[in-house]
Amino acid sequence: SFSFSPTFTFSKFQILSRIPQPASLPALDISTNSNGPKQDSLMDDDPEDLFAGATEEVSLDSPERDVLLSDGPSPAITPITPPTSVIAPRIGHIEEEEGGDSFDVHISVSDPEKTSLSVFKQRDFSVKRRFSDFLGLHSKLASKYLHIGYIVPPAPEKSIVGMTKVKVGKEDQSSNEFVEKRRSALERYLMRTVKHPILLKDPDVLQFLENSELPRAVNTQALSSAGILRMVNKAADAVNKMTIKMNESDAWFEEKQQHFENLDVQLRKLHASVESLVCHRKELSVNTAQFAKSAAMLGNSEDHTALSRALSQLAEVEEKIDQLHQDQANADFYLFSELLGDYVRLITAVKGVFDHRIKTWQKWQDSQVLLLKKREAEAKLQFTNKPDKLQQAKDEIKELEGKVQQGERDFEQISKIIRKEVGRFEKERVKDFKTIIVKYLESLVQTQQQLIKYWEAFLPEAKAIS
Amino acid sequence: HLEAIDSSPSPRAMNVDLEMDATLQVDISDALSERDKVKFTVHTKSTLPNFKQNEFSVVRQHEEFIWLHDSFIENEDYAGYIIPPAPPRPDFDASREKLQKLGEGEGSMTKEEFTKMKQELEAEYLAIFKKTVAMHEVFLCRVAAHPVLRKDLNFHVFLEYNQDLSVRGKNKKEKLEDFFKNVVKSADGVLVAGVKDVDDFFEHEKTFLLEYHNRVKDASAKCDRMIRSHKNAADDMNRIASSLYTLGTQDSMDLCKFFLKVSELFDKTRKVEARVAADEDLKLADLLKYYLRESQAAKDLLYRRSRALVDYENANKGLDKARAKNRDVLQAETSQQLCCHKFEKISESAKQELIDFKTRRVAAFRKNLVELAELELKHAKVRRGRPGLDITALSGLQTPGWF
């Protein structure tokens, strides 16, 4: 049995959301009126040659890199200044309503005076959001940014594998566990979203953080028609990808794709092993508790006084160790396992972004092929006496030429964005893994410290048997 | 009045520590595991005149130990003693199965993983082997330490006769007979247990042993389960270490070294976890299992005594009836005297045996619990690492390694 108390807040895990963010984000220029970045404004980004040198080998302290990754100024558009430093979201669980759980989102801004966005003027504020609000936010961001190459952090799963929500009552332990898993997942999701320099400025994100009441997101019902449509699209994409053979002129992309494929396989395997460890540690906790009870009973029937006392002490030690195992299992899960789970999902998003690039290329190629056909057709029409058709053909060709140019620009744009995103992603990944795994190892050490205390207290009791 | 029993000196200088008597020392100096047989080399050192030499060795198999044990059980003269429980049959089936499965799955894992798992399983096999040797040895030592059993002729033959004792294992018919004997005994035992004893000492012992035996059984089972979970967790850590290692060889420069270091850490942790499980097994699980068997042997002694008491009471009734009818009085008198003598003899030795049982039990628990605590401490300290070293140095890999 797990002893989750409803007020248990996992304080050590909230630190997760306080992981220091990269250095200051410089001013970005984006029109506050648009509902998403316009393609042209992004065209004014850093000149190409800055990215020629962008590789994945970023170290943790290279502030120059951050400057490279920013967007350059464009005088025609009104500049806004986002917060220059950390937004650290903390999420607390409120109550359960018929429509689903509600969560309290606390935002802390480190330098509120440096930002021009009104929502970040205060140092601390909070809003109340439903679980479906988070899903709705992700859905909007995904539809706006994924296809142009931004790695949008995936939303937490709606049904957590192996834990169907059982409405047995508020004190139900498995229900508490479910809520905590969800709360923690939302916290990590939101943190990753606001860490992204582009997403932080998105109006939907700002609205999410600011407004008191959001309209109910409609298409997040499990297996809703929209959900099914998305699944179908994903499947179709997978099929398409197999038939598109792109002439990859850029070795960087080929290398990166291979890298993410390998990473995907390895992380899934590691994740499975860690999940197994969590499971066995929980089992160990249960079995230790049972043994403790049994040892206590044995101590009761033992008629030699000193041995009886020692056995009771042993039972107490094992009971305390049971609690240690539980805590360790939580650390195993919330630090290690969830980290891996998050990255498995993130890498799926990364692979998706690469796929979109291929699709963009395909679109460009298709327009080129079509243009060629039209030109051939036009050439043939030259010898016929059909001036209307000829003009029509010439018009179509003009249009297609524009499309081809746009296609090329789109392709170059998405390639550029992906390079930037991958650089940012890898940097975050290195930091995340190092920070969280070190924290996890610290938890292991703490457990051992406790174990030492318990056994040191027991040893004299054992020696006292005479 | 229990305290009085605890502190009263034992009338016979009974050796609780099984290793100290120089007149007869027995140990298992060597053992060989061949396919499905284990051959134990029983080594004896003795100053007793019964033996031809002062030091000699023979090779024995498990069945011969069982033969010796059964000969004690069947000997009426030993009814008043706690017969040292027979050692369990060497069981390598589970371990062998695991090794076989590993061999079959060799293709599906990396070379490092395979080697590691093979080493783990071999260590497990070795641990089981050592345990079975220990159990057989303890049996012999208990017999050698017992003032009466050590003089048993079968025991001397067992120790000295350097040919095969030709004791075949029990055939099906004999096994079936044993089974029925046990059923009758348990049914009988229930009836006999219901009879309240006039002697407070034995009444207390009966109550105590019944409860104790059941609780030891429960504790033993729960302990086994706990240890199995430990082993499972250690296996998981092994897989995690391997995966981290693979990541360390594949991933970007920055994380490479980090993953390799963490993989090493997990490997070390796993080794310690496996060690913890093995030590708990030896010091706790084996202890509980042994006292499960010993408490059963003690219960059997009480049963035999109760049986003798019932026989004695029946003989008394028979004598009264014979006197009343004035028929076969002499026969009844003889019978009654025999039963009385038998009962008293058993009672006297049983009392001493039970007192010694308690002394042995307390000493064994003390020794094993102390050793368990010391080992747990040692392992926890290893897993914690040396105090004062900064873990966060790991993230920058500034200092050469944390562990």
UniProtKB/TrEMBL annotation, chain A:
GO biological process: early endosome to Golgi transport; protein transport
Residues in PX domain copies: 81-216
Annotated localization: Cell projection, Lamellipodium; Early endosome membrane
Keyword Nucleus set for record: no
Transmembrane segments: none
Keyword entries, A-Z: Acetylation, Cell projection, Coiled coil, Endosome, Membrane, Phosphoprotein, Protein transport, Transport
InterPro entries: AH/BAR_dom_sf, PX_dom, PX_dom_sf, Vps5_C
Molecular-function annotations in GO: phosphatidylinositol binding
Mode of membrane association: Peripheral membrane protein
Cellular component, GO annotation: cytosol; early endosome membrane; lamellipodium
Function: Involved in several stages of intracellular trafficking. Interacts with membranes containing phosphatidylinositol 3-phosphate (PtdIns(3P)) or phosphatidylinositol 3,5-bisphosphate (PtdIns(3,5)P2). Acts in part as component of the retromer membrane-deforming SNX-BAR subcomplex. The SNX-BAR retromer mediates retrograde transport of cargo proteins from endosomes to the trans-Golgi network (TGN) and is involved in endosome-to-plasma membrane transport for cargo protein recycling.
Family recorded in the similarity comment: Belongs to the sorting nexin family.
PANTHER family: SORTING NEXIN, SORTING NEXIN-2
Identification of the protein by name: Sorting nexin-2
Species, as recorded: Nothobranchius furzeri
Source organism phylogeny: Eukaryota, Metazoa, Chordata, Craniata, Vertebrata
From TrEMBL, chain B:
GO biological process: protein transport; retrograde transport, endosome to Golgi
GO cellular component terms listed in the entry, alphabetical order: cytosol; endosome
Name of the protein this chain belongs to: Sorting nexin
Keyword Transport in annotation: yes
Function: Involved in several stages of intracellular trafficking.
InterPro entries the UniProt entry points to: AH/BAR_dom_sf (IPR027267), PX_dom (IPR001683), PX_dom_sf (IPR036871), PX_SNX6 (IPR042136), SNX5/SNX6/SNX32 (IPR014637), Vps5_C (IPR015404)
Organism, as annotated: Nothobranchius furzeri (Turquoise killifish)
Family according to the record: Belongs to the sorting nexin family.
